[in-house]
Amino acid sequence: MIRLAAFDLDGTLMGTDQKIRPRVLEAVRLAQAQGVIVTLATGRMFTATERFARELNVTAPLLCYQGGWIQALDGPVLRRIVLPVAVARAAIALGEAEGWHTLLYADGQLFVREFLHPVAFYDALLGSGVSVGEPWEAILAAHEVDKVLYVAQPEHIPAMADRLQARFSGLAEIVRSHARFIEVVPLGVSKGSALAWLAQHYGVAREEVLAAGDQENDITMIEWAGVGVAMGNATPAVQKVADWIAPPVTEDGVATILERFVLNGSHP
């Protein structure tokens, strides 16, 4: 029996229109009515996740910043792992040396040297209220860092990943969270480890946990959960590790997941 279900946001609960479809909303509501704990596991910052949690009536702690920040709506931060300032400084320096579009998340805020895309792009995918132009060193002196993110064209991400892995191996985790995003997050931070923490917090066994996602940053939680599901639109690497492949987000895949494993009580 599934007691805890964790869902990625972008590409899983909602498509590029940033809207959660009625069938998905209803399936989540029914699952919660049956007593299933539902959470969101995302690379987004807490404030960029909050409105979706409220729409879904999710009251469980949210797994934000790839799991490095765990906090319930209207509640305190329960767990936070920060990026050492030396690693953050090195990640920023590497990004600038390589000419990568670099963004810094710190203390629940998002900072960028300059806008290279329309403001709507940042608001929709990265977080609203972006601070622009503040010197990096001033930010590092005043804030604790949650992660560094780079925006690039999809075809450039694999080479960037190799460069980042070579530079930060043993110092930080490198995760691809979107076709155009790659991130440097604190060592040991992952959606999988955050989901394990939350399951222990609730006294839920691993076998009673379901997780679903579509990108490489979802692999750890899909592998850890008793039932790991990849969306039909997931990357091949994600589908390879899943117990089951759901319909794509455009076909209300999350609703199908809940109908199969929770509302109808079946298993893979």
The CATH topology of the largest domain turns out to be Rossmann fold
> What is the class of the largest domain in the CATH system?
Alpha Beta
The outline comes out as globular
Percent of sequence in beta strands? 15-25%
Q: What are the low-pLDDT stretches, counting only 5+ consecutive residues below 50? A: none
Structural class computed from helices and strand pairing: alpha/beta
Count of helix runs: 10
Percent range for helical residues?
25-40%
How do the helices and strands follow one another from N- to C-terminus? EHEHEEEHEEHEHEHEEHEHEHEH
Radius of gyration: 18 Å
Entry summary:
By secondary structure, the protein is α/β, with parallel strands linked by helices. The chain contains 10 helices and 14 strands.
Can you walk me through this structure?
By secondary structure, the chain is α/β, with parallel strands linked by helices. It has two domains: 4-80 and 189-263, HAD superfamily/HAD-like (Rossmann fold); 85-186, Hypothetical Protein, Haloacid Dehalogenase-like Hydrolase, Chain: A, domain 2 (2-Layer Sandwich), CATH 3.30.1240. Helices cover 37% and strands 23% of the residues. Strands 8-7-6-9-11-10 form a six-stranded mixed sheet, with helices on one face. The chain has a five-stranded parallel sheet with strand order 2-1-12-13-14. The mean pLDDT is 95.
